[in-house]
Recover the amino acids of this structure.
């Protein structure tokens, strides 16, 4: 079977059982709800966050690990074998990764919210192991060049960043007990840059080269500027990590500048893709994606201003919200609401009647989510700027309502699989 | 730039289909519960255009692919893609036929609530399936034509397809 035919039949019968990517997406969708509930419950701790073992650290990792990393893993397991034309060697490691991720996240959160250091460290170690296993599973796949070389190159770079993120993360978790890291805060910033812009950021940019043309029905963006953007982004990430570790303002500013250049090239490619696409009616999903594209350069700009000390004391929190909430969370929810129905439809028996995402209640659920997501992020930004915990609590409440709507949409979409069981492999 | 004439012809069909699908989606999205006024010039035009579009896309395009194109791809060792896309054609044909059946009375006396509900359900499913189908053909089938068919076969298929006009 060729790659081309494999794309069409593989997703339904050959590459992965649908339950594998779906479980990661389910964790992501539920984590979004968990994130906003945590913000609601711990609003005071969140607005007062200045580092250390705090519920804010838990909220950040519900978002980064539970939602963002889980989505990246689910999407990578589904998309990369198609992109490279090489099936995963076995399915059980993917299932093991999920359970390790779930147990690790549970331990990590239990430790943070219950202030139980041993549980926190065990959770962190399990998360590190899950991410290491994922890196090993997917690395073999990336060695073989396929039709989607650009996406594979970004994913490969993201994978290297993931290994460094996980290593620093485990080291940071153990540091609470061992005290072996000279500067916990600087190392935490390096961990944040590697995870946010490296692992998750690069993977999101790379998958955009597959997903955006697919949704817009346009040709793949030009490869050469895409590689240029990757090289500049990598230079920025290396500079940012070095700047964080050695506390160099110049390196951090250079990192932000490189990031802005890479983003400018990327967004130009995406705009061309959308302009030349056959599909103009891209719906709410692309409202979120466009919002993410605004937040990404804003996060870099804010990061640069924080580095030179021009952004005020509270801007560090603002930077984190723009990076993880504005860019990554918006992008992930925007693409997930397109990927989920497509994934489900590809696994259904073709001839059977089924629900469609155009049904009125599905539209309404997505509208509720999109509006709530925007309002919650705005309230969170106000909370970050003013230190007013009431705004953070409102963000948690509104965000939870939106996340609930997204859970309902996802459950309704996935329910189609129960009505129309996947065909046998 | 595509060098295959048949690939270009199918791509042009896809452009027309997606543009029409978006018109239909817009109508369905604007009237989630109450039926639209079928006498409205824009609605009436869409309803009048729909059978012709379905005839072009579903009858001519699908039939050509199944009768000619997929056979040649199978001979070139690419049988699976034709099997998969044919299954999708089979799922869409009854939806198109049902829409045409519903349009006839609607053009004369407008939609009643039940008729609109069914039109909306069937139309939404057809739009969703059609867009995904076009995505697959654009991403996989058309590149495959470029690499699997020689120039002579391509020219012969193109002549057959245009002759069907």
């Amino acid at each position: 079977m060729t790659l081309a035919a494999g794309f069409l039949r593989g997703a339904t019968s050959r590459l992965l059982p649908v339950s594998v990517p779906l479980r990661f997406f389910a964790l992501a969708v539920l984590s979004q709800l968990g994130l906003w509930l945590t913000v609601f419950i711990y609003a005071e701790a969140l607005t007062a966050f200045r580092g250390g073992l705090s519920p804010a650290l838990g909220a950040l990792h519900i978002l980064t690990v539970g939602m963002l990393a889980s989505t990246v893993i689910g999407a990578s397991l589904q998309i990369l074998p198609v992109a490279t034309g090489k099936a995963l060697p076995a399915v059980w490691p993917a299932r093991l990764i999920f359970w390790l991720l779930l147990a690790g996240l549970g331990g990590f959160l239990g430790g943070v919210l219950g202030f139980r250091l041993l549980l926190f460290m065990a959770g962190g170690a399990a998360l590190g192991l899950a991410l290491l296993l994922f890196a090993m599973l997917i690395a073999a796949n990336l060695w073989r060049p396929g039709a989607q070389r650009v996406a594979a190159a970004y994913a490969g770079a993201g994978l290297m960043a993931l290994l460094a993120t996980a290593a620093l993360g485990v080291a940071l978790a153990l540091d609470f007990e061992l005290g072996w890291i000279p500067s916990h805060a600087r190392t935490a910033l390096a961990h944040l840059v590697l995870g946010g812009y490296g692992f998750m950021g690069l993977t999101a940019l790379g998958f955009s080269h597959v997903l955006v043309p697919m949704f817009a029905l346009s040709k793949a963006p030009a490869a050469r500027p895409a590689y240029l953007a990757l090289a500049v982004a990598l230079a920025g990430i290396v500079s940012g990590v070095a700047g964080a570790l050695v506390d160099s303002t110049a390196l951090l500013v250079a990192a932000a500048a490189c990031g802005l250049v890479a983003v400018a090239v990327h967004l130009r490619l995406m705009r061309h893709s959308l302009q030349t696409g056959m599909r103009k009616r891209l719906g709410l999903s692309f409202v979120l994606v466009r919002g993410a594209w605004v937040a990404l350069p804003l996060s870099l700009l804010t990061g640069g201003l924080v580095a030179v000390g021009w952004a005020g004391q509270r801007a560090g929190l603002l930077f984190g919200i723009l990076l993880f909430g504005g860019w990554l969370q918006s992008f992930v929810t925007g693409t997930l609401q397109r990927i989920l129905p497509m994934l489900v439809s590809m696994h259904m028996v073709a001839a059977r009647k089924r629900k469609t995402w155009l049904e009125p209640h599905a539209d309404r659920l997505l509208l509720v989510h999109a509006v709530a997501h925007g309002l919650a992020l705005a309230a969170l930004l106000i909370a970050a700027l003013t230190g007013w915990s009431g705004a953070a609590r409102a963000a948690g409440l509104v965000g939870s309502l939106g996340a609930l709507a997204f859970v309902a949409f996802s459950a309704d979409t996935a329910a189609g699989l129960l009505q129309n069981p996947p065909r046998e492999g | 730039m595509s060098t295959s004439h048949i690939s270009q012809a199918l791509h042009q069909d896809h452009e027309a289909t997606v543009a029409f699908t978006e018109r239909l989606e817009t109508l369905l999205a604007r009237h989630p519960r109450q039926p639209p006024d079928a006498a409205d010039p824009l609605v009436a035009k869409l309803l009048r255009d729909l059978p012709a579009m379905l005839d072009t896309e579903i009858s001519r395009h699908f039939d050509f692919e199944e009768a000619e194109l997929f056979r040649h791809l199978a001979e070139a060792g690419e049988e699976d893609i034709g099997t998969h896309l044919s299954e999708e054609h089979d799922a869409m044909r009854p939806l198109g036929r049902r829409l045409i059946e519903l349009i006839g009375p609607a053009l004369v006396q407008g939609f009643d609530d039940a008729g609109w509900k069914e039109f909306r359900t069937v139309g939404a499913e057809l739009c969703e399936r059609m867009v995904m189908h076009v995505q697959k053909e654009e991403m996989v089938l058309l590149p495959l034509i470029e690499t699997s068919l020689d120039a002579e076969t391509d020219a012969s298929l193109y002549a057959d397809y245009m002759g069907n006009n």
Observations:
- The mean pLDDT of chain B is 86.
